[in-house]
# Entry
Amino acid sequence: MTSRTESTFPPPVMEARRWLDGVTFSDAKPLLNVSQAAPVDPPPQPLLDAMAEALKDPATHLYGPVLGLPALRTELAAQWADHYHGAVRPDQVAITSGCNQAFAAVISAICTEGDEVILPTPWYFNHKMWLDMAGVRAVPLATGGDLIPDAEAARTFITPRTRAIALVTPNNPGGVEYPADTLDAFFALARDTGIRLIVDETYRDFDSRPTPPHTLLQDAEWDNTLIQLYSFSKAYRLTGHRVGAMIAHPALLAEVEKFLDTVAICPSQLGQRAALWGLQNLRQWLAGERDEILGRRRAIEDNMPKLTAKGWRLMGVGAYFAYLEHPFAESSATLAPKLVQEAGILTLPGTMFMPADDPAGARQFRVAFANIDAAGIATLFDRLAVLDWPLAARETGQ
# Structure
């Protein structure tokens, strides 16, 4: 008998960290850790001060409402409506213990064993892991060289057991920002077929576009189809406090509440107060954080010719990620531990984001640049450019 957890693979980031065991790095060639998209710096000092003040409030240490603090739900609804030029009410917002929990809660609320959810590949591995553990079949939707999924291709995978399509934009792991037309097409597909469209916008705050990335919330009945997920972790460096959000129909949130109440009872009170203070006071600071990330994105693009000349290809870049195709004969699953030992680079292979029977993952790597500045990016690309591993045989046309 296989248990729920045995039905899926080990957590990729934790597995990759084990490649560091027994390896030492010199001062001249320190480890470049580009494996995880989590800021390691603490929140800005004004937010730390606000959190310290919140600790003095006795309510911070008690259970709170399962769906989150009313003030935070109200503030997020107002800002979400303003950003997307749509209509969002507080009763359409739930606060969760991180965005991963929001996804788990949604799947528990809309699926049962044997149901199906369509995931574009390369997929976010935690989405696949939860579907495995929930007994829900993940249906892979290949995206091709540009990493942009196609709604009409997805239509061919919809069956009577399909309950949702889950998109991540800006994408993890690919970094690409889905065009508004792509999201419109998926929304129309989901609405017309009676399934849900889940849009995970964890990295929304680092989208390069000056205008709202989509207009889905301008549909008067958006909440019959659309479920949006969000995380405060990246925006305000609150990864350890686990605060996420879900924007959806109130009736669905009533089902979600059952899941949340039995898993965590309520989100972290301190984390929620920090998120609320951040929404109300850190808009300008967050704009600066976005500018920094966009600068690192430009550094990726500027340094890419070093690798292009060696046969690499940049498949996608944006938010916290660059997704690369390598030219070597061996699989990225084999090469990733070798990168630690021979180049001092910790990164994740594409095989961690692909179905086991999809050979494309063997040619790919994800680079997470949340904690590596422009100078570090140049060093990273210099180290990759000098790798002299055996190359894959080139395909020739007929």
Observations:
- The longest helix spans residues 283-308.
- The radius of gyration is 21 Å.
- The CA atoms of residues 133 and 199 lie 21 Å apart.
- The mean pLDDT is 96.
